[in-house]
Design brief:
Order of helices and strands: HEHEHEHH
Structural class: alpha/beta
Number of strands: 3
Helix content: 25-40%
Shape: globular
Distance between the termini: 35 Å
Radius of gyration: 14 Å
Number of helices: 5
Oligomer: single chain
Length: 111
């Protein structure tokens, strides 16, 4: 089991999204075919591509209202996407975006 957090700012690393940090913390695996990845919001295309590349079969998403662009991509590559739509995840993202709009826009490359 591994955990990850978005550390783009803390580590000055543009690809250190939460999903990437989690996989990094998990270390090398022989296979990811029994992995379920839990994430606060729908993964971006970079993280979704990694999920597909590693053949991770299932992603559980806290919310997809804030950022939902990769669901179709994931599903088209056989990844099961379960959206639990938690109000606490929506609220957390709304609060972050309100407090740090520049960081959010940089994170999703909308500057």
């Amino acid at each position: 089991m591994a955990r990850g957090r978005n550390k783009r700012v803390q580590e000055n690393n543009p690809i250190k999204h939460g999903e990437m940090d989690c996989l990094y913390n998990a270390g090398r695996q022989r296979t990811y075919r029994d992995t379920v990845l839990y994430t606060t919001l729908m993964p971006c295309f970079m993280c979704a591509g990694t999920i597909v590349q590693f053949k991770i079969p299932k992603v559980v998403v806290g919310e997809s209202r804030t950022f939902g662009e990769s669901q179709e991509f994931l599903e088209s590559h056989g990844v099961e996407v379960e959206i639990v739509d938690l109000d606490e995840c929506v609220q957390m993202m709304q609060e972050f975006i309100e407090a740090e709009p520049t960081l959010w826009n940089e994170d999703i490359m909308e500057l």
